[in-house]
Amino acid sequence: MSESSPDESSWTPQDPAVLRDQRAAYDEMRAQCPVAHSDALGWSVFRHDDVTAIAGDPRTFSSATRHLAIPNGMDSPDHTVYRQALESHFLPDRLVAFEPTSRRIARDLLAGLAGRSEAEAIDGFVDPFAHQALCAFMGWPVEDWNRISGWTHGNQEAAFRRDREAGARLAAEFAGYVTAILESRRRDASASDLMAALVRTRVHDQPLTNDQIVGLLRTWTAGHGTVASGLGIVIHQLSKDQDLQANLRAEPGMLDAAIREILRADGPLVANNRRPTRDVTIRGRSIAAGEPISMMWIAANRDPAAFDDPDRVVVDRDPSSNFLFGTGIHRCLGESLAVLDMKIGLAELLRGTAAFGLAPSSKPVRHVYPSNGFSELPLLIRPAGSTGRGASGRTSS
Asked: What is the pLDDT of residue 224?
């Protein structure tokens, strides 16, 4: 597709051919039509340098949203003030204190898989671990994890189907759940979990309202859904790459870099939106003020102009251009928590097994937009302590 022919600038993100392999489809768009329009996403931008320019210019490309979303759906100066007030909830001391809880959750779930030679990784470990860890960090009852997971997946489905009624219903249910917990924390001066800390957070010398906290937590909960997607993608990659799996068992200090690089090549989050505050032109495309622009993270992170041999996972690759957690002033606030949970989940899986690979009995099933993880990931497992070669399985997705 030509960069200068308006009649060739359209695409359909929900076309079955796109959903069958989102990475390949976005790679093709980046090469052939790097700025394209669709009814679903508005203008989509696929190249690394264009995404860099948009994310790095918040004056021209606004993040403000119709729905209350703190701080992601705000522009400066409000964004800066709210973000600074919230950063204290992700300081290293809080994460250090939380780490044993996250590790216990992972070990308890993996104990339920002990003795199995084959297991479903997503339903059996990845999804419950990510959402139980989220509940524990927030101060929500851990047994509510399935409810939280249901909201996460329900919102993804509503976004995919562009079903505003379903999205509104899920938002109202989530608001009711969170508000009830907030009210209990307001009545309990001795509470010390994150919900209590949010109740006591002040911006402009005023406490956050329930509506503000609900908007904030809706964003955080959706964001933590990418932890489940990301962990599934990493496990899938290591199931195919037995050498890298063995290296990480021997050198667990490589986990952070390996997770970031694997998720550069196969990202869990498809896109984020901006709206220009004035008319702009990107690669010859005229985009009016207020029109939605989707920054296609997956395509940008696989751009050969930014990464040599982008399909290949290179653990010691320079991570400075990696958009896994975004870039610019809206870089993910919960990045440290997300990486911690993925590291713990993966470390405990490696510790509790001698090897794992893709099970030959059935094929992994991918999520589709707005996610890029897996809904099914059957594994063949060799238990810890056993000897022999690595778990074998298919080497294709």
From this structure: 78
Q: Which DSSP letter does residue 14 get?
A: T
Could you say which DSSP state residue 321 is in? Answer: G
Distance CA 263, CA 374 (A): 13
Residues 246-253: contacts with CB within 8 Å, 24+ apart?
246/355, 246/390, 247/315, 248/346, 248/350, 249/350, 252/347, 252/350
Residue 78: which H helix or E strand, with range? helix 78-86
User: Which 3 state secondary structure label does DSSP give 294?
Assistant: strand
> Can you tell me the distance from the alpha carbon of 218 to that of 339, in angstroms, rounded to the nearest whole number?
19
Is the distance from CB of 236 to CB of 364 less than 8 angstroms?
yes
Whether 388 shows a pLDDT value over 80: the answer reads no
- The DSSP string of 337-396 is HHHHHHHHHHHHHHHTEEEEEE-TTS--EE--TTB-SEEE-EEEEEETT--SSPPP--S-
- Residue for token pair 């994460």: 95
SS3 223: helix
∠ CA 99-73-173, rounded to 5°: 70
Q: What percent of the chain is modeled with pLDDT above 70?
A: 95
- Report the sign of the C-alpha dihedral through residues 144, 147, 151, 153, in that order: positive
In sequence order, the 6+-apart residues with CB closer than 8 A to the CB of 77 are: none
- Measured in whole angstroms, the distance separating CA 28 from the mean position of its chain's CA atoms is 23
Gyration radius of the chain over CA positions? 21
Query: Is-contact 391 356, C-beta < 8 A?
Result: yes
pLDDT at 118 over 60: yes
| 206/184 Cα distance (integer angstroms) | 19
pLDDT for position 8: 58
Mean pLDDT in residue range 25-36: 97
Q: How many CA atoms lie within 13 A of 383 on its CB side?
A: 10
Give CA–CA dist 260/315, Å, rounded. 8
180 Cβ contact list (under 8 Å, min separation 6): none
